[in-house]
Amino acid sequence: MHGRNASTAPDNGGRSRLLEPLTMLQPGTFGLTLLLAMLTALGPLSMDMYLPSLPDISHVLAAPTACTQLTVSSYLIGFAVGQMIYGPLSDRYGRRPVVLAAVALYLTSTLACAGAESVDLLIGARFLQGIGGSGAIVLARAIVRDLYSGVQAARELSLMGSISAFAPIVAPMIGGVLQTAFGWRASFIFMSGAAIVAVLVAARLLPETMRHSRLGPMSFLSMVRGYGAVARHRGFLVYLGIITISYAGYLPGFPAPRSYCRAFTASPLSLSASPLRWVRLDTCWERRSPRGSWCALGSIAPSESA
């Protein structure tokens, strides 16, 4: 029942209505928004939770500090690489199977991180963890683009951002407590538990939102052409610059675990509050202009399937 594709029908509210069994989450419900936010939160959770444990990782694995910090870099590299491949894959095979595969990869690599006996193995596992975690974020936003349009899409993304922004708030605090009580491996075990919950809930409740999958062959050249067109889009470059500046200096130094938790919490608090204001601004702009909230649509990633 869950393996078949969902068909969609247009709705007057600017979204698509899924013709799925009642056991699947439906567009416009808070449950679907919460599930997509949970998938999106896997990335920040993986980045922030284990940072208070970096000094202990260096000590236990007898690795230089510079090598231990490469676990951060390898995750970010994998996260960047993964975002470039999941879009074309999901256009070809559908959102649901690709997001389940991404979360499964994330779970497997997180368990490998928890069991790593050397810093080299940890660096490699973190790279794969970044690839898996990026898929959850990319495909959650692609699902929003499948189901909604205009201001409704911006509103959903804003609500998802507000919910998922709590992950970098609580992750360092939980990581600091786990580090103090159990050591650095406990953070990765906690991430594995979160991934298990995410993949089980997604397998049970997440519908297929892709209307028509692309049956043509995939090629590296077509991917390059597609991303080249995006890279030349002035609006995209402006939004990219804004996001880049907002995250500059996001990673401070690594003090003691509890001190780190207090210092790291302030920035995500502002991130969680900002999208809620954009929801109200989107609604006001929609009433004033027939074009809708064009500025908020900058948060919606371009997609070949749109």
Write the layout of secondary structure elements.
Blueprint: E1 8-10, E2 16-18, H1 30-48, H2 54-60, H3 65-93, H4 95-114, H5 119-147, H6 150-164, H7 167-182, H8 185-205, H9 220-231, H10 234-247, H11 257-288
Antiparallel strand pairs: 1-2
Please, could you describe this protein's structure?
This protein has helices at 30-48, 54-60, 65-93, 95-114, 119-147, 150-164, 167-182, 185-205, 220-231, 234-247, 257-288; strands at 8-10, 16-18. It has a two-stranded antiparallel sheet with strand order 1-2. The chain is an all-alpha fold and 306 residues long. 70% of the residues lie in helices and 2% in strands. A hairpin with a 5-residue loop joins strand 1 and strand 2. The protein has one domain (24-218, 252-262, 277-299): Growth Hormone, Chain: A (Up-down Bundle).
Oligomer: single chain
Strands of the largest sheet, in order across it?
1-2
* Percentage beta strand: under 5%
Catalogue the unreliable spans: 1-21, 285-306
- Give average pLDDT, whole number: 77
Annotation, overall tally of beta strands? 2
Return the CATH architecture.
Up-down Bundle
Which percent range fits the helix content? 55-70%
Largest sheet: 2 strands, antiparallel
The best one-word shape is: globular
Any idea of the CATH topology?
Answer: Growth Hormone, Chain: A
| Pattern of helices and strands | EEHHHHHHHHHHH
CATH homologous superfamily identity: MFS general substrate transporter like domains
Domain count: the total is 1
CATH secondary-structure class: Mainly Alpha
Radius of gyration: 20 Å
Q: Between the first and last Cα atoms, what is the distance in angstroms?
A: 26 Å
